[in-house]
Amino acid sequence: LLSGKLSDLQPKAPKTTQPTILVVDASVNVRRLLALTLEKQGYRVTQAKDGLDALEKLDAGLDINAIVCDIEMPRLDGYGFLARLRTHDRCSKIPITMLTSRTGVKHRQLAMKLGATAYFSKPYREQLLLDTLANAVFNAPFN
Predict the structure, then answer these.
(1) What is the band of 5 on the pLDDT scale with cuts at 50, 70, 90?
(2) CB-based burial of residue 12 (10 Å sphere; 0-12 exposed, 13-18 middle, 19+ buried)?
(3) Does the model's pTM come out above 0.90?
């Protein structure tokens, strides 16, 4: 008789890594809603309450595939976060989708100039946001 379990005899299936999205927003409700939406799509989600919190998590070695970030936040806003992230070697190519209540063209232009990959104004179309994120995650140059 074999002393091992049947599961020991089965070939190990390759692990599929779930893409991880970092959601950066001052509003806990927005973070929770986005996290639920993204988790339903099969993403792992990590949350940060502002740009500084997000940078601290990234500096600690958090490995992510994309970021969804608000603009208006305490300590370090979305623009400051974008600017600092784009100078960071390890994180300079991570796709960043801005999700904000700011609808003005100048806000969008500044975000794109600073390195945002996409820009959504609230209220946003959920499916369009999900499609944009999927495209960014699965077609990103660093993957």
Answers:
(1) very low
(2) exposed
(3) no
